Amino acid sequence: MTDPLFASSLVGRTALITGGSRGIGRVLAESLARVGVRVVFTGRDPRALDETLAALRAAGTSGAGLPLELSELDDPAPVAQALREHTDRLDILVLNAAIGGVRTPIVEQPLATWREVFQVNVHACLALLMATDPLLRRSDAGRVVFISTGVARRRKATTGAYAASKAAFEMMAGLYCLDVEGSPIRGNIVNPGPTRTEMRAAAFPAEDPMTVKPPEALMPLLHRLCAPECDLHGQTLDADDWIASQSSR
Ligand SMILES: NC(=O)c1ccc[n+]([C@@H]2O[C@H](COP(=O)([O-])OP(=O)(O)OC[C@H]3O[C@@H](n4cnc5c(N)ncnc54)[C@H](OP(=O)(O)O)[C@@H]3O)[C@@H](O)[C@H]2O)c1
Predict the structure, then answer these.
(1) Catalytic positions
(2) Is 196 close to ligand 1, i.e. is its CB under 6 Å away?
(3) How many domains would you assign to the chain?
(4) Pocket of ligand 1, candidates 27, 71, 95, 96: which has the most ligand atoms within 8 Å of its Cβ, to mutate?
(5) Helix-helix angle 23-34:219-226, to 10 degrees
(6) Which domain holds residue 43?
(7) What CATH number corresponds to the domain at position 209?
(8) pTM for the predicted model, two decimal places
(9) CA of residue 79 to ligand 1 center, whole Å
(10) Smallest CA separation from ligand 1 atom 40, residue
(11) Which residue among 22, 115, 148 has the greatest number of ligand 1 atoms within 8 angstroms of its CB, and so is best to mutate?
(12) CA of 97 to the centre of ligand 1 (A)
């Protein structure tokens, strides 16, 4: 699943993945654990957190599941404190957790949902960046991966708060990339493209999930962006294009 070059350089690194309890985040947490990364991950559902942690331990690494409700996160300090109980340095941050909101014409978006989507997809992510930046700066090669979506840049009817919040998330990511220039931190945005998860199934209930790629297909790109050798910075990468370019090599 991973280029052996990157797998060896990931051994012993420490990662924080938001939304590691299911979907893309969970597959990433387990796959990084298998190559020797110590993974701290967040989610809400206690049973899913326990299951992911058991899978990480079975993969042979230590790790931790942090219960975190992003719709209520407005202060970086408690997260920073909880993280410091697990690590004094962060090599990898993957801001992955997000919610999709509801699909309606823009003037029919319920304002309460709009606010919640911006809270989870933007404001909580900024609080997490604030909480983790000091730990990333202690790494010799901090890597940040911002998981976004194609509709952040491509207008698509009824994508509402999800698209607007991801556009704001991408701007936040880009500004962070400017701020860390001159440091060893490298940050990049990834659009995973259609991927077989609960979020995709909720957004496209009529779609046969087996026609959509599994999260595992994203792992080579994500591992590469997490590795200390990665010198890409400030890029927005479309995973499907990257996967196609790799298979045609
Ligand atoms: N799947 C796709 O086709 C697709 C396409 C483009 C972009 N993306 C992006 O890829 C990323 C991952 O998506 P996914 O498809 O893997 O989603 P998913 O299967 O719905 O998983 C979402 C994860 O985020 C966590 N989460 C959601 N709301 C939360 C909240 N309020 N507080 C704390 N944690 C919360 C969930 O934890 P709980 O278990 O606690 O709910 C879960 O671990 C997202 O940024 C999404 O926008 C996905």
Answers:
(1) 162
(2) no
(3) 1
(4) 96
(5) 60
(6) 4-247
(7) 3.40.50.720
(8) 0.97
(9) 19
(10) 44
(11) 22
(12) 4
> Is residue 200 within 6 Å of ligand 1 at its C-beta?
yes
Distance of CA 182 from the midpoint of ligand 1 (Å): 32
Establish how many alpha carbons lie within 13 A of residue 240's alpha carbon, considering only the half-sphere containing its beta carbon: 10
CA 244 to centroid of ligand 1, rounded, Å = 24
pLDDT in tens for each of the 249 residues of the chain? 566 667 789 999 999 999 999 999 999 999 999 999 999 999 999 999 999 999 999 988 889 999 999 999 999 999 999 999 999 999 999 999 999 999 999 999 999 999 999 999 999 999 999 999 999 999 999 999 999 999 999 999 999 999 999 999 999 999 999 999 999 999 999 999 999 999 999 999 999 999 999 999 999 999 999 999 999 999 999 999 999 999 877
